[in-house]
Design goal:
The protein has 183 residues and is mainly alpha-helical. The protein is 78% helix and 0% strand. The chain is built from seven helices and no strands. It has helices at 2-36, 56-69, 73-96, 100-115, 117-126, 133-156, 162-181. Helix 3 runs parallel beside helix 6, helix 4 packs parallel to helix 7 and helix 6 runs antiparallel to helix 7 (162-181).
Amino acid sequence: MLLKLSRLLFVIFFILIIPLTAYFVMEGETLAVVVNQEKVIYNLPYPGILPDHPLYFLKIIRDRINEFLVRDNLKKAQLYLLYSDKRAAMAMLLAKEGKNALAIDTFSKAEKYFLQISPLVTNAKKQGVSAPSSFIDTLKLSNAKHKELLDTLLKDLPQGSTDSINLIINLNVQAANELKKLP
């Protein structure tokens, strides 16, 4: 009987105590890693097919139809955030492939979509529907990630494209200033 009880206590110890200890140790390591990183922690969505694909026009048609069908301001703002993030991811992939002009054009479209978000959130607020604070935080993270990617592009792309990238950076800064005005 005593042997069974000791085995039971031994099993309970390993089932409950060891995983909790490992959890707290891992949590401490995760915090140290996050604090020491200088990069923005925001995952961009999978971009799908790129603008250089022959069937890309179908994706554009689908996006325009979705944009037309969504009437709620907050849902449209979320849709524009998705479009903006996807185009930023597309631009980075295009830059890796050496298609610099197309990458710059795609990133410009990403920032133009992002600029449309703040007025939508403001209009929703005027209609009595305020955006959740988590969405505003997501917008700020996305904007910071776009800025980080633009800085990377500025370093990686040839010298002749710096003026175009600086224009896109100005759009990003304008979007960041509009985000500061949101409630």
